[in-house]
Amino acid sequence: MSTITTEELAATTLLRFATAGSVDDGKSTLVGRLLHDSKSVLTDQLEAVERASANRGQDVPDLALLTDGLRAEREQGITIDVAYRYFATPRRRFILADTPGHVQYTRNMVTGASTAELTVILVDARNGVVEQTRRHAAIAALLRVPHVVLAVNKMDLVEYQETVFAAIAEEFTAYASELGVPEITAIPISALAGDNVVEPSAHMDWYGGPTFLEHLESVPVAHDLSHCHARLPVQYVIRPQNAEHPDYRGYAGQIAAGTFRVGESVTVLPSGRATKISGIDLLGKPVRAAWTTQSVTLLLEDDIDISRGDLIVPSKDAPATTQDIEATVCHVADAPLTVGHRVLLKHGTRTVKAIVKDIPSRLTLDDLSLHPHPGQLVANDIGRVKIRTAEPLPVDSYADSRRTGSFILIDPADGTTLTAGMVGESFAAPEPVKDGTDDDGWDF
Fold first, then answer.
1. Residue 157 CB coordination number (10 Å)
2. Which bin fits 148, alpha (ψ -120 to 50), beta or left (φ > 0)?
3. Whole-angstrom Cα distance, residue 34 to residue 120?
4. Is the dihedral angle over the CA atoms 308, 314, 319, 322 positive or is it negative?
5. How far is 281 from 275, CA to CA, in rounded Å?
6. Quick one: which of 395, 373, 389, 385 has its CA closest to 331?
7. Which of 52, 281, 320, 341 is deepest in the core (most CB within 10 A)?
């Protein structure tokens, strides 16, 4: 019987990671250098970048153009949208989200990092830790990203001085640790010159750690959700009602976490009706079990009124339903979020009316203090909110499930995403605040 080597095992794993940092810290250049030096760029892509760089009067290819695809991005030299890239090395497969650095587009960093197992935060060695660095560290902690890499870039512009790197690493590590980031790895690099990106630097013999790519290839990936609380948000009810399937009634969706098995007792929320799984269809074929990220159709023993937005869970492991949600949020819209704000709350596949009951606190990034009862959250603010929903929702704590413990608030007038929320306690959890007694104007 053959055994699987460590390298073969690593090659089967997938690492989702996101880059973040301030404007001009070199995120797109780092990604371009990583793709180029790891031989993950097709010849025609590189030729196109070389032509575009020559047309702009540059002597060497601008590797940032490998990720900055929008015309506005190339004209301004900044990243606006999240650029997703897939690449692989002999040791691991990767999905990369290159997120914007401009404060205006912080909302896109939240999007890119929400499913990441690792976040790379770039710092310009000349500028050190700045406000946007602290904001990105706070978002990474808020999203409970298990691994954070501090990439101190442009070391060539500070003469590769160890003291510069050490001071930045110490300041950032202290800040991120206070936020509760579980693992922080600092790496000195020059994305433009290629130092410590894929190949070790000849200019920093004082650094004995891994290169950027070596760390990405070796960091433990522990995102297996198949052993978590099983959750299936129902996306669609399948009723063919034809001669071949006259009585078929299936409930389709992507398993958010955990494993479902035929014969298992399940409960449908928020109704609370219980039944058993009589069958599971996967890609048109019956299976005995299905797990996280698989898109399946569950067949149930009893005819229950189930529709899009309902949540199917094991009866022995059902979350409580509630109309009162406390969460830490990152406000991403230009218009402020205020107490009394009427919104739509989207949780999984369910969208309900809601109202912002209270904003107990806002996080101050400089010293991580909590400003009590700010009354509103403006763009890029991180704070605590209390929300009342028109209908009960089965929510998990975000600490237990990143999928079913998260939600977004939507403007009912135009569908704009206002706020990304994480249910339960976080690094920004304030002291309990007594609720007001004036609930006039509530209609649910």
1. 14
2. beta
3. 13
4. positive
5. 17
6. 385
7. 341
Q: Which candidate, 95, 100, 102, places its Cα nearest to that of 111?
A: 100
Give the per-residue pLDDT at 369: 82
Whole-prediction pTM value? 0.77
The token pair at 157 is 């512009």
pLDDT at 71: 37
What's the rounded Cα separation, in Å, for the pair 391 and 311?
14
Give mean pLDDT in consecutive 10-residue pieces for the chain, a chain of 444 residues: 44 81 81 82 59 63 56 40 79 85 63 84 95 88 90 96 97 92 94 92 95 94 67 93 79 93 96 95 93 93 93 94 93 92 95 96 83 91 94 91 90 92 66 40 40
Residue of 72, 66, 70 whose CA lies nearest to 28: 66
> Could you give the CA distance from residue 359 to residue 338 in angstroms, rounded to a whole number?
8
Count of beta carbons in the 10 Å neighbourhood of residue 429: 14
